[in-house]
Structure formats: C-alpha cells, structure tokens
C-alpha cells in the first residue's frame, strides 16, 4: 500500500469580545497538539466557502456566533512528513462571551495580551508577532 501526501486547509478565529480574546485548550487525547492552547477553528469542507467554514467551526467548537473581520495571517506546516496543513487565521468579533465547548477542547479562557503570550505555543505567537497583532490589539494588558 502506498501512502499518499495529504493537504488540509484549516481556518482559525482570533475572537475578541468584551476586550478579551478567546483561547481554547485541545483535549488531552487529541492526536495532534494534545493539551495545548490555540484559537478555535478547523478544516474547510470541500463544498464550503472559507468564511462560512470558519463561522461553522467556531459555532461547533464554542457555541459562539462571530462576525468575520479580516485575515490576520496565513501559514503552512507539516504535522508529519506526508501531512501538510495550510492555516488561515482571521480576526473575528463576538457580541457574547458565553462559551459552550465541544468535546474537542477541555478548557477555554478569555485572555488579555500578556496571558496570550504566556499560554499560546511559540509557533502561534511567532505568527501573531509577524503581523504585529499583539501590538495593535485593543486588549491592552
């Protein structure tokens, strides 16, 4: 049996509500990145538009309805030698901070800038720094 290369297109949402940003913790039994903090989101289905997929994924994972503002950054990386992920991260707004987590995540936090710096993985922080997101965020502390 020949193993084939896979490519997945994933969307993530940096959601601001009440002057804080939502981060979610991957469940401890997750195949990739178990127990790490990230932004909510997931794979785009074949028939979906990009922003529609983002809105759907956020709703499924957090119960939140969001307004998509703009793309923050796009990047790609390998999760193993045959699996590449293309990641598109958007800035979004929510009028609610009432989160209802899916089973994909074990915890969530509404955080300020410094908490993001302390909890998010270095790779995510690096992408945010490239686009000067943390400096421009209205969440001051």
UniProtKB/TrEMBL annotation:
UniProt keywords, alphabetically: DNA damage, DNA repair, DNA replication, Hydrolase, Magnesium, Metal-binding, Mutator protein
PROSITE patterns given in the database record: NUDIX, NUDIX_BOX
GO function terms (MF aspect): 8-oxo-7,8-dihydrodeoxyguanosine triphosphate pyrophosphatase activity; 8-oxo-7,8-dihydroguanosine triphosphate pyrophosphatase activity; 8-oxo-dGDP phosphatase activity; 8-oxo-GDP phosphatase activity; metal ion binding
Domain Nudix hydrolase: 6-133
EC class: hydrolase
Cofactor(s) required for function per UniProt: Mg(2+)
SUPFAM superfamilies (alphabetical): Nudix
EC number annotated for this UniProt entry: 3.6.1.55
Swiss-Prot/TrEMBL GO biological process terms: DNA repair; DNA replication
A Pfam family: NUDIX
Catalytic activity: 8-oxo-dGTP + H2O = 8-oxo-dGMP + diphosphate + H(+)
Family assignment from sequence similarity: Belongs to the Nudix hydrolase family.
PANTHER family: 8-OXO-DGTP DIPHOSPHATASE (PTHR47707), NUDIX HYDROLASE FAMILY PROTEIN (PTHR47707:SF1)
Name listed for the protein in its UniProt record: 8-oxo-dGTP diphosphatase
The species this protein was found in: Fictibacillus phosphorivorans
């Amino acid at each position: 049996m020949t193993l084939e290369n896979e490519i997945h297109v994933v969307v993530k949402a940096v959601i601001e509500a009440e002057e804080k940003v939502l981060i979610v913790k991957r469940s401890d039994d997750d195949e990739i990145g178990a127990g790490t903090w990230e932004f909510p989101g997931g794979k785009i289905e074949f028939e979906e538009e990009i922003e529609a997929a983002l809105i759907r994924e956020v709703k499924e994972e957090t119960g939140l309805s969001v307004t998509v503002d703009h793309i923050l950054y796009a990047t790609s990386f390998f999760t193993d030698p045959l699996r590449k992920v293309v990641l598109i991260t958007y800035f979004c707004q929510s009028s609610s901070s009432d989160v209802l987590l899916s089973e994909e995540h074990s915890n969530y936090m509404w955080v300020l800038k410094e908490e993001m710096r302390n909890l998010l993985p270095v790779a995510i922080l690096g992408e945010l720094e490239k686009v000067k997101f943390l400096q421009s965020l209205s969440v001051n502390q």
